[in-house]
Amino acid sequence: MRVPSVLSLAGVVAASSLSAPTAPASHVSGCSALRAPLGNALFSRGSSVYKYEAANFWSNTELMTPGCVFRPQSSEQLAEGIHALANANAEFAVRGGGHMGIRGSNNINDGVLIVMSNLTTLELNEDHSIVSIGPSHRWGDVYAYLQKFDLSAAGGRLGPVGVPGLLLAGGVNFYGNQVGFGCDTVVNYEVVLADGSIVQANKTSNQDLFWALKGGSSNFGIVTRFDLETVKSRKVWAGSHTVSAQYIDQFLAAAATYASNIYDPKTHVVPALVPGETTLASVILFYDSDNTSYPEIFKPFTDIPAVSSTLDFKTVSDFATETGAMVVDGINDVFVAGTVKGTTYKELLQGITIINQTFFNELPKLYKQIPTANISTIQLDWQPIGADWMKASESRGGNALGLDSSQIYLCYAEVVEWIGSAYDDIVANWLEETTYKINNATQKAGLYDAFNYMGDAAGFQSIFPGYGEENHQKLVNVAQKYDPNAIFQTLMPGGFKVY
Ligand SMILES: Cc1cc2nc3c(=O)[nH]c(=O)nc-3n(C[C@H](O)[C@H](O)[C@H](O)COP(=O)(O)OP(=O)(O)OC[C@H]3O[C@@H](n4cnc5c(N)ncnc54)[C@H](O)[C@@H]3O)c2cc1C
Ligand SMILES: *[C@@H]1O[C@H](CO)[C@@H](O)[C@H](O)[C@H]1NC(C)=O
Ligand SMILES: *[C@@H]1O[C@H](CO)[C@@H](O)[C@H](O)[C@H]1NC(C)=O
Ligand SMILES: *[C@@H]1O[C@H](CO)[C@@H](O)[C@H](O)[C@H]1NC(C)=O
Ligand SMILES: *[C@@H]1O[C@H](CO)[C@@H](O)[C@H](O)[C@H]1NC(C)=O
Ligand SMILES: *[C@@H]1O[C@H](CO)[C@@H](O)[C@H](O)[C@H]1NC(C)=O
Ligand SMILES: *[C@@H]1O[C@H](CO)[C@@H](O)[C@H](O)[C@H]1NC(C)=O
User: Which residues does UniProt assign to the signal peptide (predicted)?
Assistant: First the structure.
């Protein structure tokens, strides 16, 4: 993955405050360094645990050949392992739910693959206001557990997605207009640091680390427990409302109407176009109410006749299972992120239109290179983030993402899923070119924003410059304070790096 280099930060970071992280001396000694102290949690090639864990990724593009798998049974064992790896100057990768579809972001050739599978905490505090979640979990597990108490949490909208990577990226969730990003609802992190110590990061302890983990990803340590606010949730009214191609313009106008005036914070929408032999437009609608359907604010969408609809009262747990079934794992998958911003309906519709038209104009080039039978799905979706959402973030203390509540953001994502690794480079190149074309066009129209949501980003994209210079610099400072030897930048090469 291409990572923003120190040079690209010129002007942000004074040259003297930063020495470039040095390259590791050894790439393969990690497995032997862990064998003596941690042999019971270490699995070599050929073992059944290795085979299971090395295959346990969302997209085939992520599959690699680690030297061994380290599956710690506790935070203490993980801490001991990190300490040993740092001493041995040995490379490693960390995998949570394995949904970051970028080769090398959560996996490694020859080095140690650390998996979170056995860090399985899942419990409510006494008054049920906080749920503690270990990084083994997927949101589906969390929702199923919480639903028994008529509760939920601000996590992934699809059940199979992993907890740790999502919360470390930000966390776009159904309750965003009420609570902000998923990370904004985290009140405490338990973190293993580079020196092998285990610390808590919260509002009163390691405050700077607490802030940095809200969007700063894997640059500071490995999180072994997230303590999150719960949300009361008996049932919600939610589903997908799908309309045919003839209504695309009306559908996109509905998306702009909603985004430009999100006056009902109980709502969440994900409008998407799904090109194919018959192109469809489909919107996920979510309303946090167990007694009210078809709220007024959704009318621009629900007035369009549906070819299919799953809208109904249901639990969040059932809904995340439903949305989870809309995607297929074990194939090849890429996401790309981008953002337009504006303040009016007109600006937001223009942004949507430019993205739509550029994307569809480029599609024939992709179809020319890949047989239709090998394209599983193509999607273009938009995530509106308005004032209520950002104010909810601010009221909880804020995060590192650097969004400005006087703007409305429409984060778009391009998704391509295909069958056959022979097409990996074709898809990657097509998406990179298409994304540059979209962003050059939105830039020309004065609607471009450099924010790329990490959860949707591709390997060629950079993330932290989009948080703004000040936040980026703060993240670098926190990384240097808690990890002075830059272990998480050098020995753990995968993922998005602040420097
Ligand atoms: C089908 C699908 C649906 C999605 N839906 C949503 C959604 O609704 N909302 C949203 O916000 N995003 C969504 N995403 C994006 C998602 O947030 C990211 O893919 C995220 O990385 C998933 O977390 P994970 O634990 O599965 O990731 P992983 O791939 O396991 O990890 C991602 C990164 O975090 C690092 N990491 C993992 N665990 C830890 C840890 N404990 N401590 C430190 N670093 C760690 C890894 O090394 C890697 O660099 C979706 C993605 C997919 C594929
Ligand atoms: C560790 O996780 C794996 C995979 O989920 C599971 O099969 C195994 O039983 C777990 N081991 C322990 C000791 O919890
Ligand atoms: C914050 O960390 C301190 C120090 O470990 C701990 O005593 C306190 O309970 C933590 N606060 C929260 C909200 O978890
Ligand atoms: C729906 O539920 C909410 C919250 O419990 C309540 O305030 C409201 O009066 C209810 N509305 C109807 C129409 O029953
Ligand atoms: C979006 O693109 C489709 C396919 O090219 C086109 O039919 C439609 O008119 C476009 N709508 C807008 C608002 O850009
Ligand atoms: C295309 O997909 C089919 C299955 O639909 C698969 O058998 C084939 O190997 C794929 N082609 C390539 C070149 O990978
Ligand atoms: C505009 O396009 C060029 C190359 O085609 C690319 O390098 C540049 O990053 C693009 N601009 C944006 C904002 O993406």
Answer: 1-15
